[in-house]
């Protein structure tokens, strides 16, 4: 285990017998009687059923291996008579091959069924352990909470950067027969939750601790399911060797033999797949019941109402995690990472507006659980917990981070540990970025983008970019004429702002472009035999004629919207360019921070001009990207289809070619931000590196990065230029535009 060096507690902090007043209040609350959580009869019956199923499955599995071995033995002993009466050498060779095929095929199939016994275990992530000396308040609270819910106290507490908490056996099977348990806490939960919600989550996990038989049964089931999954899905050099032998062989007999062996292996794996399916269904049923039981423990401590709030909070944090991932991809360089991952997740989770939070709640209430879901649908969990009516005993609103000593330093230490484990040897090349700087940069970007949207009356559209031609210092205008022109342009822009049709046209471009991409995905999948319902692209049939007709209709709608918006687009282009030229006029020499603005605007103008120059390539890249993603959704079904594989490789080669061209075109332009970009040019910022087209995963990952960075850089550059324009117009006495009210 790895421990994070944290500041040694002061003498007063070491005296856990004299906790501070806040900790005293927390502990006092946990001394109250916790309502008894009764184990439903359905849960007990489910345990019994799953025990029976999971005991039968390994017996069937071993029986299949034994049956296959016995069949091979019977064939080898009894079918020697195949050679009687044969005198021709050629016929003897033919009969020998027929005799050996079942033996070899059976033995190889048995080998592939038991192969996971000999496969090396994957390297496991070594978690970060916290000790009672480092985090005394946490351990005191955990011990009291365990006593309150009548669960064994964990022997170890570890922390990581996941949006999750879990209970498990500390040493796997070695801890199976005792109470040697481990609690894992995801620090993003601590960053975002109140004590009420966080302690409720801990009570949920300790509810799992109290499920002694259920937890052990769950562990056994998971191990069996993992075994079946490895047998059915895991592929290694042995599997690849069979494929390569079949493809490289020039002997027809050898091809037939290898094909037969592969068929035998495939059949055995299909049979085991059925067993795996049965085991997964049974285990998921039990796990869902275990979650209901643990939910009741959570409600008994935090209250049924707090449980419902926690469900929404967890989805909010997960949404924040996705935004943090997008933030890292857009605002950090290839060899950069934030120094505090939980802090970045918390930043985004806490900035979600009311509209997004409302959408999260609606999503939670619409979600359903399937046969293979390990957790029940959240709305069912909320309903089940509400029936208990538990008021809870722990109602404190302080941040959960108050439970930790120097929480920020702990988060940074765990982040470093996680990055080191994930990156391995590449960790030494990593540049850590202070999360506070990332947050500040993001706030400035959002503020600038918000002003830009007010200025434009809508958001910038990738299909209709604002083009800025010329040079800022060429032919500086007469200042009076330029100011008069700027006022006229701003007044005309306001007229467009007041016209709600403009917003609708812009929305039409976005909606139609999305529909065109979906239609493109549908068509490319149809061409390679992948059948989708035509309803997903608003078609009644999937004929080529129907697809082409739909495409023409969408294209016409797109062109109508572009033509309607072009005059406004050109007006705004002229307005921005005129204001930027005014900025460089000597008449504005006394303007506040004018030299900094002039310096920045020149770099931003050149970079924006360069980005717009590759706009067509960027659109082409995105269209091919969504095509390739659509194909890759079916890779498990078509991975042995040569035509399909060649199409995927052709796509990745074209994607790499487009990215190479973009990088080359942008390399002559300076990166005005140069964040994590040691080369300092825009090409390296947008396309950090070129990948091998044969490495499909890396190529698709880089394509996503390039698309995200293009959109981010383009929006950021335009927003910063518009910020300069707004300041110039303010000096000129021009009132800012008001946002469109719809």
What does this structure look like?
- This protein is mainly α and about 750 residues long.
- The chain contains 25 helices and 7 strands.
- Mean pLDDT is about 80; it is low at about 1-20 and about 740.
- The strands form 2 sheets. The protein has a 5-stranded mixed β-sheet with strand order 1-2-3-5-4. Strands 6-7 form a two-stranded parallel ribbon.
- Helix content is about 65%, strand content about 5%.
- The chain has a domain at about 455-730.
Helix content: 55-70%
Task: Please state the CA-atom Rg, rounded to the nearest Å.
Answer: 32 Å
- Order of strands across the widest beta sheet? 1-2-3-5-4
Task: Please state the average pLDDT score.
Answer: 82
What distance separates the N and C termini?
A: 57 Å
In short:
This protein has helices at residues 11-14, 21-30, 41-78, 89-114, 136-149, 187-192, 195-210, 212-233, 237-248, 252-302, 304-331, 341-350, 354-366, 378-386, 407-423, 435-456, 479-497, 500-527, 544-583, 594-613, 615-632, 635-638, 642-666, 682-686, 696-731, and strands at residues 2-3, 128-130, 156-160, 165-169, 181-186, 336-338, 431-433. With 742 residues, the chain is mostly helical. The chain starts with a strand and ends in an 11-residue tail after the last helix.
Question: What are the key terms here?
Answer:
single chain, 742 residues, two-stranded parallel sheet, 25 helices, disordered N terminus
Task: Give the secondary structure arrangement, pairings included.
Layout (H helix, E strand, L loop, with lengths): L1 E2 L7 H4 L6 H10 L10 H38 L10 H26 L13 E3 L5 H14 L6 E5 L4 E5 L11 E6 H6 L2 H16 L1 H22 L3 H12 L3 H51 L1 H28 L4 E3 L2 H10 L3 H13 L11 H9 L20 H17 L7 E3 L1 H22 L22 H19 L2 H28 L16 H40 L10 H20 L1 H18 L2 H4 L3 H25 L15 H5 L9 H36 L11
Parallel strand pairs: 1-2, 3-5, 6-7
Antiparallel strand pairs: 2-3, 4-5
């Amino acid at each position: 285990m790895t421990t994070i060096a944290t500041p040694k507690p002061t003498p007063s902090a070491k005296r856990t017998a004299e906790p501070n007043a806040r900790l005293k209040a927390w502990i006092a609350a946990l001394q109250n009687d916790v309502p008894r959580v009764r184990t439903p009869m359905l849960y007990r019956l489910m345990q019994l059923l799953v025990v029976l199923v999971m005991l039968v499955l390994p017996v069937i599995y071993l029986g299949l291996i034994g049956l296959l071995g016995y069949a091979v033995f019977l064939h080898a002993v009894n079918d020697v008579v195949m050679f009687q009466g044969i005198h021709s050498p050629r016929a003897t060779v033919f009969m020998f091959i027929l005799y050996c095929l079942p033996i070899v095929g059976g033995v190889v199939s048995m080998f592939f069924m038991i192969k996971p016994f000999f496969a090396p275990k994957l390297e496991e992530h070594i978690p970060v352990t916290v000790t009672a000396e480092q985090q005394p308040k946490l351990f005191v609270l955990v011990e009291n909470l365990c006593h309150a819910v009548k669960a064994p106290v964990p022997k170890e507490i570890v922390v990581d950067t996941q949006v999750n908490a879990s209970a498990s056996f500390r040493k796997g099977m070695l801890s199976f027969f005792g109470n040697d348990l481990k609690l894992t806490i995801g620090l993003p939960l601590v960053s975002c939750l109140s004590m009420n919600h966080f302690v409720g989550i801990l009570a949920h996990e300790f509810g799992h601790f109290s499920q002694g038989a259920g937890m052990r049964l769950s562990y056994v089931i998971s191990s069996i399911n993992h075994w079946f999954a490895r047998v059915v899905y895991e592929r290694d050099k042995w599997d690849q060797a069979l494929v390569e032998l079949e493809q490289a062989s020039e002997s027809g007999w050898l091809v037939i033999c290898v094909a037969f062996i592969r068929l035998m292996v495939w059949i055995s794996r299909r049979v085991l797949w059925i067993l795996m399916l049965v085991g997964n269904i049974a285990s998921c049923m039990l796990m869902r019941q275990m979650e209901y039981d643990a939910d009741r423990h959570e409600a008994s401590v935090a209250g049924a109402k707090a449980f419902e709030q926690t469900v929404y909070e967890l989805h909010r944090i997960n949404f924040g995690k996705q935004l943090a991932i997008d933030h890292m991809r857009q605002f950090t360089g290839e060899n950069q990472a934030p120094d505090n991952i939980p802090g970045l997740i918390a930043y985004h989770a806490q900035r979600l507006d009311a509209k997004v939070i409302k959408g999260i709640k609606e999503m939670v209430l619409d979600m359903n659980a399937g046969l293979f879901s390990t957790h029940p649908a959240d709305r069912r969990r909320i309903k089940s917990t509400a029936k208990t009516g538990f008021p809870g005993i722990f109602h404190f609103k302080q941040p959960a981070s108050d439970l930790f000593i120097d929480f920020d330093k702990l988060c940074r230490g765990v982040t470093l540990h996680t990055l080191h484990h994930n990156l391995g040897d590449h960790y030494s090349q990593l540049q850590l970025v202070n999360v506070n700087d990332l947050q500040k940069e993001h706030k400035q970007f959002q503020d600038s983008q918000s002003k830009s949207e007010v200025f434009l009356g809508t958001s910038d559209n990738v299909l209709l970019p604002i083009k800025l031609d010329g040079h800022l210092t060429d032919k500086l205008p007469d200042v009076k004429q330029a100011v008069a022109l700027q006022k006229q342009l701003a007044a005309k822009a306001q007229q467009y702002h007041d016209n709600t049709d403009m917003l609708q046209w812009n929305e039409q471009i976005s909606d139609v472009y999305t529909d065109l991409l979906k239609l493109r995905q549908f068509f490319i999948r149809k061409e390679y035999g992948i059948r989708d319902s035509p309803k997903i692209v608003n078609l009644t049939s999937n004929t080529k004629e129907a697809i082409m007709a739909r495409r023409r209709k969408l294209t016409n709608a797109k062109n109508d919207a572009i033509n309607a918006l072009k005059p406004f687009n050109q007006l705004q282009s002229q307005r921005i360019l005129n204001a930027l030229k005014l900025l460089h006029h000597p008449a504005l020499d006394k303007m506040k921070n004018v030299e900094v603005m002039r310096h920045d605007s020149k770099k931003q103008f050149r970079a924006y001009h360069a980005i717009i120059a590759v706009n067509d390539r960027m659109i082409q890249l995105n269209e091919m990207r969504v095509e390739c993603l659509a194909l890759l959704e079916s890779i498990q079904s078509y991975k042995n289809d040569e035509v399909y594989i060649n199409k995927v490789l052709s796509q990745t080669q074209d994607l790499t070619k487009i990215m190479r061209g973009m990088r080359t075109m942008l390399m002559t332009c300076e990166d005005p931000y140069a964040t994590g970009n040691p080369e300092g040019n825009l090409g390296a910022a947008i396309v950090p590196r070129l990948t091998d087209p044969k490495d499909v995963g890396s190529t698709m990952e880089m394509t996503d990065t390039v698309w995200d960075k293009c959109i981010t850089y383009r929006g950021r550059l335009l927003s910063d230029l518009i910020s300069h324009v707004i300041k110039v117009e303010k000096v000129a006495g021009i009132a800012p535009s008001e946002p469109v009210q719809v």
